[in-house]
Design a protein that fits this description.
With 375 residues, this protein is α/β, with parallel strands linked by helices. It folds into two domains: 242 residues, Type I PLP-dependent aspartate aminotransferase-like (Major domain) (Aspartate Aminotransferase, domain 2); 123 residues, Aspartate Aminotransferase, domain 1 (Alpha-Beta Complex), CATH 3.90.1150. It contains 13 helices and 14 strands. A seven-stranded mixed sheet has the order 1-9-8-5-4-2-3, with helices on both faces. It has a three-stranded antiparallel sheet with strand order 12-13-14. A hairpin with a 5-residue loop joins strand 6 and strand 7. The model has no long low-confidence stretch (mean pLDDT 97).
């Protein structure tokens, strides 16, 4: 049996080796390492895949979120609502810009931002909502967009874990994750469903004006070279990473299907176990399973993780400390107990290996080991 990994990038690479190597060699041969060439190709290809007017490639997913906030003309002290159960980058960029992160609780079943908690958190200073499509499943975007319209708020989707997920609205229309709000952001960190071989990210929008200004902000605020119309940053996807992503993008739906197949095997194996709650499937959204995350009930999570490690099975805890309890983000507005669902999840979730290269032998070994560990 192959070694079990949380993400098996080497086996994935072996299947697309020729396309990846050819693309990288073309970059080296042309010496177009920044902008142009492969970056433009990838931008157009991703726009076509997502059905969105504009993709702005960036240096990483965190930069994408920061640039998205920078373009909105928000003022210091303006409030931005985001979930407390997520990776730190979502609140980090809000704080870096002098804005006020307002964290709220999440839904216990989907792990995504709670609609009722969003409603309660809105004040006259609220300017934006940043829902996170956590672990690969879209938040309740129909409700979020209705709230945003009612209160004249911007919506920036953090789709860093959910590229390729599709959301179905009540009228039957479908949109890709990251393509429903004013702006969407994603990460191409290597372990993502669409990952490069370094850092990378992108911004999505259908708004021509926002796109033009975000493209400028990402390039030192320049529209014309050496003429700086906006305060900007330096955040560019390099051509070698774009070549890797161009090789992977045609396989993205295949990668998603492989993850969904493994998730279905996990679901079946753990169904009915009193100590395991498998990930909920939100009817309006497909799930692309960036992570397959269990909730463990009435059992020592650390002990389960240790037992799996003894059998050479990695299992990760995302996220052991919610944002409102992080030292860097301590705020007199929040204390332990304020967001009970997020705090409960932080104490009980465990993510199992999930990637495109899991085979039947590995899946049988993992599921058997998990069931043994929770006895």
């Amino acid at each position: 049996m192959k070694k079990i990994q949380m993400v098996d990038l080497k086996s994935q690479y072996e299947k697309i080796r020729e396309d990846v190597n050819t693309g990288i060699q073309e970059v080296i041969d042309t010496t177009t390492f920044i902008k142009g060439g492969k970056v433009n190709d990838f931008q157009k290809n991703l726009e076509a895949y997502l059905g969105v007017k504009h993709v702005i490639p960036t240096g990483n997913g965190t930069d994408a979120l920061q640039i998205a906030l920078m373009v909105l003309g928000l003022k210091p002290g303006d409030e931005v609502i985001t979930p407390t159960f997520t990776f730190i980058a979502t609140a980090e960029v809000v704080a870096l810009l002098g804005l006020k992160p307002v964290v709220v609780d999440v839904e216990e079943d989907t792990f995504n931002i709670s609609i009722e908690c969003i409603k309660k958190a809105i004040t006259p200073k609220t300017k934006a909502i940043v829902p996170v499509h956590l672990f690969g499943q879209c938040a309740n975007m129909e409700a979020i967009l209705e709230i945003a319209k009612e209160h004249n708020l911007f919506v920036i989707e953090d789709a860093c874990q959910a590229i390729g997920a599709k959301y179905t609205f009540n009228d039957g229309s479908k949109k890709q994750a990251g393509c429903m709000g004013n702006i969407g952001c994603t990460s191409f960190f290597p372990s993502k469903n669409l990952g490069c071989y370094g850092d990378g990210g992108a911004i999505f929008t259908n708004d021509d004006d926002l796109a033009a200004r975000m493209r400028a902000i990402a390039n030192h605020g320049m529209v014309v070279q050496y003429h700086h119309d906006l305060i900007g940053v330096n955040s560019r996807l390099d051509s070698i990473q774009a070549a890797v992503l161009n090789a992977k993008l045609p396989h993205l739906n295949e990668y998603i299907a492989a993850r969904q197949k493994s998730a279905a095997i996990y679901d079946k194996a753990f169904a009915g176990n009193k100590h395991i709650i498998t990930p909920a499937h939100f009817a309006s959204s497909t799930h692309v399973f960036h992570q397959y995350t269990l909730k463990l009930v009435d059992i020592d999570r650390n002990a389960v993780q240790a037992k799996l490690k003894e059998k050479s099975i990695p299992a990760m805890i995302y996220y052991p400390v919610p944002l409102h309890l992080q030292k860097a983000y301590q705020d007199p507005r929040y204390k332990a107990g304020d967001f009970p669902i997020a705090e409960k999840l932080s104490a009980c979730v465990l993510s199992l290996p999930m990637h495109t290269e899991l085979d039947d032998e590995q899946m049988n070994y993992i599921t058997s080991a998990v069931l043994e560990a929770v006895k």
